[in-house]
Each structure stands twice: as structure tokens, then as C-alpha cells.
Specification:
6-stranded mixed β-sheet, mainly beta, 12% helix
């Protein structure tokens, strides 16, 4: 008789393999999909100005297998003048820290709520002209088996330096006082920085002893922070404040000639970075030349008088 056991054995083997495959498929869940990001890898922002990240220019979190996520955002780079960011609202999110003009915040919520906060977020430039980073870390929380991923966005912070407007050359007599006002006074401006630091110096290359140099006095210090010598009868000072307050102090400043004639300069340096050594990209230095002249004595005119021999007469003004 023919051997019929082989087909039967083969069918049983196939059936067992199918059952084992189904069991393994049911027992082994699909590997978790780690979150990912779309959107920019770099942004450009001007110092002390704001840029909004919207649409394709905004970072977005993608995760097809997790609806609830955690997101940590932070600004990295040198401490002085770092930019800040503000989320476009926090509706539906749990927030750790501040989401307004901050350098670090943590949020948790649905992907849609997180992405809504990211679309329209604003980055506000700080002071130094250099690169910083915005780091976003998305985590599949509260899922214990979840994964995390990081996106680093480079922030190219570009500065606009101050511009000094200096008066034309002028002349002042020895020990005489001259008021610089209107177009004859130095002024400062800056397109993006509301606050500046200004350093004023009188210099000369003539070899005249410092004690014989002219001096200057600002027209008040209202609203200013004085970090140098008090600006009254001095040859150098350093002050900071708003452009309006600085210009008010400069318009009306008085230059007093020294005791020795010669050629001098008023040197003005303005800087975006208050209280720092400054950045060459964020400072402007200009000067105005002036001359101290010797003032000859001036005699009041006298009317002609006649005197007799051996006579005296009192001359009255």
C-alpha cells in the first residue's frame, strides 16, 4: 500500500507553524515610532527685534503612534544678550516655567495643542551679533515605553550698530564756555536698540598736560545711569540710558576751554551692549575736532580826556 503518512505530517507541520506565527505576532507589539520634527533648522533674527515662525517656517512635532507628548525648549549660547522666545498661546497645555519671553519652558499635551503653540511662536533678538541655538526635545510622555528626539535650530542673531551724529568743528576760547546745541551737538541713534551706553572723552595729541585740557558738562543726567565720573567739568565719562535721554543730555552740553590753546577732539563711543566691553559689530566711535584759542584781554573803550599840568582826574566808567 502507498505511504499516506507524509502528506498528513506535512499538513500538521504547516498548521503548527501558522499558529506559532499568529501567537508571536499577537504577543510582539510593533516597535514604537520615535517623535520627529519638521520645520526650520536655522532662523535669522535682528538684535532687539522680533521674528514670528509660522507655517512651514515653524517647528512641528510628528508622531503617528502617540497623541500626548512632552516638549522641552531652551535657548543655548553665551549668557549676555541671549534671545528669548514666546509661544503662540498655551491652550490645552500643561506648562512648566514661563512661555513668554523666556529662554526655557516645558509643555505637555496633545500633538495638535503643542503644534498650535509652535506655529506663530516669536523669537526676540538680544544684543550680541552671534549665533545661538534653540533646542527642542520631544518625548512620548506619559508612555513609559516612549522615545524622545531632539531638534536643534540655529539662531543667527544679527546686530545693527549705533550711529553717532557729530557736530562740525568749532572753536572755544581759553577758560570760555561754549554750549553745543541743535545741529551743533552730538547725537546718537540706533534702529533696533532702545538703550545705549555712551562714553565721552576729550583727547589731544599735542602733548599739553592733562590738567590744562578743556572740560565738558552734560546738560543734566535725567533718566541716565552714570558709570563714569559725574559729567560736570570732566574730560571723560560713561553713561547709559534710552536714546531720548542720552540725546537730551548731549543737546546743551557745555565745553569749557582749558588754560592752554591747542587742538583737541571730543570722542564719542556708543554701544548696544550696556555694561559690557562691547562687540565691534555693535559699537560706533566718532569724533569732532575743536580748537582752544587764546583770548587776548579786551579793554573797555575810554573817551578822550584832557589833563592839565600837575592835575589829576578820576576816570569813571
Amino acid at each position: 500500500m502507498p505511504d499516506r503518512s507524509s502528506p498528513t505530517l506535512a499538513a500538521a507541520t504547516v498548521s503548527a507553524l501558522l499558529v506559532a506565527t499568529l501567537v508571536l505576532a499577537w504577543a510582539s507589539p510593533a516597535a514604537a515610532v520615535v517623535p520627529s520634527f519638521t520645520g526650520p533648522t536655522s532662523v535669522t533674527v535682528t538684535t532687539n527685534a522680533t521674528v514670528a515662525l509660522t507655517g512651514a517656517g515653524a517647528p512641528q512635532v510628528v508622531d503617528p503612534d502617540t497623541s500626548t507628548l512632552g516638549l522641552l525648549m531652551s535657548i543655548g549660547g553665551p549668557g549676555v544678550g541671549r534671545p528669548t522666545f514666546t509661544l503662540d498661546g498655551t491652550s490645552g497645555l500643561t506648562v512648566t516655567g514661563s512661555a513668554v519671553r523666556t529662554r526655557q519652558v516645558g509643555v505637555a499635551g496633545t500633538r495638535s495643542a503643542i503644534n498650535a503653540a509652535l506655529d506663530g511662536m516669536q523669537i526676540e533678538g538680544g544684543a550680541p551679533s552671534q549665533d545661538y541655538t534653540l533646542t527642542l526635545v520631544a518625548d512620548e510622555t506619559p508612555s513609559a515605553a516612549g522615545g524622545a528626539t531632539t531638534r536643534v535650530i540655529t539662531i543667527d542673531q544679527q546686530g545693527t550698530h549705533p550711529v553717532n551724529l557729530m557736530p562740525p568743528a568749532f572753536t572755544v576760547g581759553t577758560r570760555a564756555a561754549l554750549t553745543l546745541s541743535g545741529a551743533g551737538a552730538p547725537q546718537v541713534s540706533d534702529a533696533t536698540s532702545p538703550v545705549l551706553e555712551v562714553e565721552l572723552n576729550i583727547t589731544t595729541s599735542s602733548g599739553i598736560p592733562t590738567a590744562e585740557w578743556p572740560t565738558f558738562t552734560l546738560d543734566g543726567t535725567t533718566g541716565l545711569t552714570v558709570t563714569g565720573p559725574p559729567p560736570v567739568g570732566v574730560r571723560n565719562t560713561e553713561v547709559s540710558g534710552t536714546k531720548a535721554d542720552l540725546n537730551a543730555a548731549l543737546d546743551g552740553m557745555v565745553v569749557t576751554g582749558g588754560i592752554t590753546p591747542g587742538a583737541f577732539r571730543i570722542v564719542l563711543e556708543s554701544d548696544d551692549v550696556v555694561g559690557d566691553a562691547g562687540d565691534a559689530d555693535l559699537a560706533d566711535t566718532d569724533f569732532t575736532s575743536f580748537t582752544v584759542t587764546s583770548d587776548a584781554p579786551v579793554n573797555a573803550g575810554l573817551a578822550a580826556v584832557s589833563l592839565g599840568t600837575s592835575s589829576a582826574r578820576v576816570l569813571e566808567p
